[in-house]
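User: Here's a structure from my thesis project, written as structure tokens. My advisor, Dr. K., wants to see whether a designed sequence matches the one we expressed. Can you design one independently, without my sequence as a hint?
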């Protein structure tokens, strides 16, 4: 009678090991590291504020990301960054590396942007240019009465 209980304990331990192995197996960490020069720019990813630079953004899906940088005294800058999957994230390999591979794989992307300072414009010239644009906008277009 002792033999069936011992067999169940062994089977239970084996099942536990399989479950623990499955839980610990396979992992891909994806990070988008964004920097700006000068640092401290507000960063928007796809129109949503993500933080300030330097910034690390974990991501799950591949594709194009629209990055917008804003910093006082600098020209706002927008760039589209294509993020293509690496070789281990292409079908059918992705299934193996996401679920069965026992070690962690890292996919780290870096984006670095240099922000241009705003030019010191003459305020009077700026006002005069705005007035001329306003007058031009108020004039009827050719062919209109």
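Assistant: Designed independently from the structure alone:
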């Amino acid at each position: 009678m002792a033999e069936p209980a011992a067999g169940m304990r062994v089977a239970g331990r084996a099942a536990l090991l399989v479950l623990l192995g499955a839980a610990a197996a396979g992992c891909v960490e994806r990070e988008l590291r964004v920097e700006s020069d000068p640092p401290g720019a507000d960063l928007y990813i796809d129109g949503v504020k993500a933080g300030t630079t330097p910034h690390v953004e974990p991501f799950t899906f591949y594709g194009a990301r629209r990055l917008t940088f804003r910093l006082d005294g600098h020209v706002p800058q927008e760039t589209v960054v294509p993020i293509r999957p690496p070789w281990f994230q292409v079908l059918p390999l992705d299934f193996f590396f996401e679920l069965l591979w026992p070690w962690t794989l890292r996919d780290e992307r870096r984006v670095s942007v240099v922000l241009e300072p705003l030019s010191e414009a003459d305020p009077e010239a700026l006002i005069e240019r705005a007035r001329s644009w306003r007058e031009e906008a108020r004039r009827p277009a050719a062919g209109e009465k």
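When you compare it with your expressed construct, this may help: The chain has three helices and seven strands.
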